Amino acid sequence: MTTTHPSALTTLGVTPFSFHSDQPLFRVNSGVSLPDALHHASNLLHVAELLAEDAAMTRDTDRYAWASHFLQEMSKAVIDDVVKVLESPCHTEQ
Q: What is the torsion angle, in degrees rounded to the nearest 10, for the CA atoms of residue 93, residue 12, residue 75 and residue 19?
């Protein structure tokens, strides 16, 4: 059995996010390299952190809180999709 290098692995594109009436509005796209996907998730979380901090420090900034919420939701979906790839028993087979 050959181990696949993580940089050669890509997202599955099966993880939905932003549910409305129990239906996902968005889904992570398949085919994105795992390092690129994690880098993007990290950037999303960084911006979400900055917005949450602004929302905590300033009155009437619910738009910051909602923006942070949606960025966190997107980040979680990307990370969950990456985890599905890494936990898949077939990712170590070539």
A: -140
